[in-house]
Amino acid sequence: RALAEKICSGALVIGTKGLISRLCIAACSLLDRHGIPVLNYVTNEGLLQFSVHLAKTPSLQMVPGRRGVELLVAAGVPRESIRAVGYLLDTKTPRPLSGDASAVTPSIGILINHGGEEYWPLIEAAAARGSSLRVSVICVSSDAIRDRILKVAPRHWRVMDRLAAGDYQRELAMVARSLHPLMICKAGPNTVLECLAAGVPVLALQSGLPQEDWVAQMLLTARGGLVGEEPERLAHIFNDWLDTPSKLAAMKRDGMAYVEALRRDTASAKGIVEVVEQFLSRRGLTCEKEFSTSPTYSSN
């Protein structure tokens, strides 16, 4: 009951998954506070394939794009109660300077925020290329994996164990400056889309989360990279791409074009802050404009 009191302490409640929104609605019902609206915000549209995350009774549903809208409509949610609020992409793509020789050097980002051991064949493949690559490793999941990387990494590698949101954006921008960049990471939809938006192709390991299985098809559609399950096979693909830099250049171009198409598709959509503001305004209320769209990667 104490938790329900905390949930229902504001003018409205926003649940970040269907299950969370359903629990928030139950909390309002428990306290007989049916007048408190609950908004359902789905950041990963892959969750909508699971009935537990299909919350049909919130006052408003917010999804990133058209795919989420159609999934909710197919589940019986009235279209008029759904808003596409766009994708949370906060990346400005740096352009290599004309004649900048360093832009030709492949630049690799390795983001290890879940697991670690499965990355090892890819780390060894990158280390074997010595000084021919610029490499930034963000390892926040395991001190042991980070220490192991430091033992095999060439001296010029940048290896970090935590990174604030703004620093992550700067690191991604550094990778993106190359004409032949690549990010090695898990197949999380927001991470992948943010990389493509920056002009960084993605070689991703399956995350193991069923709600993220759709990312593999998205990357194929975008022609911006690949998702795989076998690290040894991915290491072979990594070497093939580095040996054929024109492939990375094409994926860089195609991935950016895919994200731009997504943005055009939701260009007329109001962002989440504006949608919430309008929702509250109809009830004679206002909200503070404090909202962050960037992830924070930290070992804490």
Quick description:
With 300 residues, the chain is of the alpha/beta class. The chain is built from 11 helices and 10 strands.
List the helices and strands and how they pair.
Layout: H1 2-7, E1 13-15, H2 18-30, E2 38-41, E3 60-63, H3 66-74, E4 82-84, E5 107-112, H4 120-127, E6 134-139, H5 143-152, E7 158-160, H6 165-176, E8 181-186, H7 189-198, E9 202-205, H8 214-222, E10 225-228, H9 231-243, H10 245-265, H11 272-281
Parallel strand pairs: 1-2, 2-3, 3-4, 5-6, 5-8, 6-7, 8-9, 9-10
Helix pairs in contact: 4-9, 7-10
What does this structure look like?
This protein is of the alpha/beta class and about 300 residues long. The chain contains 11 helices and 10 strands. The protein has helices spanning about 1-5, 20-30, 65-75, 120-125, 145-150, 165-175, 190-200, 215-220, 230-245, 245-265, 270-280, and strands at about 15, 40, 60-65, 80-85, 105-110, 135-140, 160, 180-185, 200-205, 225-230. The chain has a 6-stranded parallel β-sheet, with helices on both faces. It has a 4-stranded parallel β-sheet with strand order 1-2-3-4, with helices on one face. Strand 3 (about 60-65), helix 3 and strand 4 (about 80-85) form a beta-alpha-beta unit. Mean pLDDT is about 85; it is low at about 290-300.
